[in-house]
Amino acid sequence: MLFDTHLHTKFSADSDMLLTDAINSAEKQNIGLIITEHLDFDYPGEDLFEFDPIKYMNEYLPYRSDKLYLGVEVGMQEHTLIPSKKFIEKAPFDQIICSIHLLDGEDLYYKSCYKQDKQTTYINYLSAMAKLIAQHDFANILGHIDYICRYAPYSPADITLDEFGEAVDIVWKTVLDKGIVPELNTRRFDNINNIKLLLKLYERYAALGGKYVSIGSDAHTKENVGFKIHEAADFMEQYNLKPVYFVNRQMQLCKS
Questions:
Q1: Is-contact 129 171, C-beta < 8 A?
Q2: For an engineered disulfide with 25, which of 116, 168, 204, 225 has Cβ 3.0 to 4.6 Å away?
Q3: Domain count, the chain
Q4: How many CB atoms lie within 10 A of CB 192?
Q5: What is the CATH number of the domain that holds 39?
Q6: Which residues touch 103 (CB under 8 Å, ≥6 apart)?
């Protein structure tokens, strides 16, 4: 069974999805789920990307099963490393994704974040990712390497090896050194050009010795649960990359 290893429900500030709706959607697709609610300390703006881990566990543990596990997505900033680590120690999370949503304290969602040219901004982004994932060594998964491509105003917005191969290599070598698994996020799988360019990054990861990936839809609504994860797994098979998920912080192979 494939697992959608990245999705958000009502405990995340940017989602209203009910857990039962996510479960029903997954059952129709015969996939498993890892719930990964947002934790981003010191997030700019009015939204509070934090939640009570004890309340989360108390409400969701009755639903935990061999098809549903409970995790968290930790937003990485250097100055929030210690409080993030203390947070995950408060509850028995099955899986920890660590991701970048901010660059130099600014939200990558907004155009105001992009004050410099693409080359400078993307190098800063990838360099920050490599540095922060090395520091956040409690991570099981590095979230969406291509997150910036969703919102950057550059054309094209993709991360390509021709432009950023050296910086991408540093990210991949860091996760390999730390024993962290990269995520293949299907959020941008609605465009074949996005897919082709993104897959080149994972082909490079495999060439450097990578063996495992997690596959996540990053769903915030029931309609997007499981989005394109079967197609993503088929693509990963080309590079002998095996889809995985985590239970009690231990890696598990998805079984066909």
A1: yes
A2: 225
A3: 1
A4: 8
A5: 3.20.20.140
A6: 113, 121, 124, 125, 128, 148
